[in-house]
Design brief:
The structure is a homodimer. By secondary structure, chain A is mostly helical. Helices cover 52% and strands 5% of the residues of chain A. The radius of gyration of chain A is 18 Å and the shape is elongated. The structure holds a DNA duplex.
DNA sequence: TAAATCCGTACCGAAAAGGTTCTATTTTGG
DNA sequence: CCAAAATAGAACCTTTTCGGTACGGATTTA
């Protein structure tokens, strides 16, 4: 029902852990699992996706772990969600434009509207950074301006 | 992956059929199935939800069917989607506020941000009417103003 | 060289989505 | 007044996706 998946939620939760630790904070999977209250395998799975997307950098071997690849003010929710659960689009036709076709009778005259809606959603997610997520009261006034009643 | 369900898509498709037919246009389920290319049982299931939400009115018996309860310019995508797949909210905690609790360790400092995001999504969907869906080129300039880059 | 850690993939159970069917109930028309 | 056409509502099944776990391999450090 138009929900974020739990894993995307976990991704955001984990990223905020890094953000709270500040620049250079490095955590292993087991560290993160303890801090977040999530199971280690689930953390494992999720940080891999975040690292693959370039939001985290990894170090292998003893004393290895993950850390933010950029400052918390330079990473947005849009990036985190996309990293974990793929492109953000309410309708399928917006994702692989023209590739498959809707299979329905008429050519879709509503595609323009969907483009606008998807764009609005993506942009409101792209307007919120990890820094704002951990300091909502500081972030929200600026954000309210950037994301007005639409 | 943050997709609309197919049934919600069907709901929108069906509602645009009514909108194209203009005020007072009445269709039976089998009519709609033919026009839309969807299976009759699926149409059946979907229009029931739309009727229950008050977006369509129904007439039983021979020559019965469904019709729009209001003009196409007074029905928004937000209403159609909510009718078919329930309240629009990306995160669960926004729906039944405080009822269940996240179950996670700290109280969620990000709830404010989610409220803003959900609101932005709902409002952009509420800003698009059925009339605009069937006349995208007419509707979009006004809509671009109502739903700016957010 | 052993331990810690990331990497990649494959797998399984549970939940949700997608779709069908069946039995009322209501209305019209002959 | 009865048969046909239509909605109302619920139950059911199948398929897909989600949520979570497990395992073998590669890499770094001590």
């Amino acid at each position: 029902m138009i929900r974020l998946t739990k894993q995307a939620d976990y991704g955001i939760l984990l990223m905020t852990q890094f953000a709270k630790a500040g620049k250079g904070g490095m955590f292993s999977v087991s560290d993160l699992a303890q801090r977040s209250g999530l199971s280690a395998p689930m953390v494992n799975k999720t940080v891999k996706l975040l690292a693959k997307a370039g939001l985290l950098t990894s170090s292998r071997g003893v004393n290895g772990g993950y850390q933010l690849s950029r400052g918390a003010s330079a990473i947005t929710l849009e990036e985190v969600i996309t990293a974990v659960e793929g492109p953000i689009a309410l309708t399928e036709c917006q994702e692989h434009a023209g590739a498959s076709g809707c299979g329905l009778h008429e050519s879709c005259p509503t595609r323009i509207n969907w483009g606008i809606i998807n764009h609005a959603l993506r942009d409101s997610l792209a307007g919120i950074t990890l820094l704002q997520m951990i300091h909502p009261l500081l972030g929200s006034p600026r954000m309210r301006k950037a994301v007005p009643a639409v």
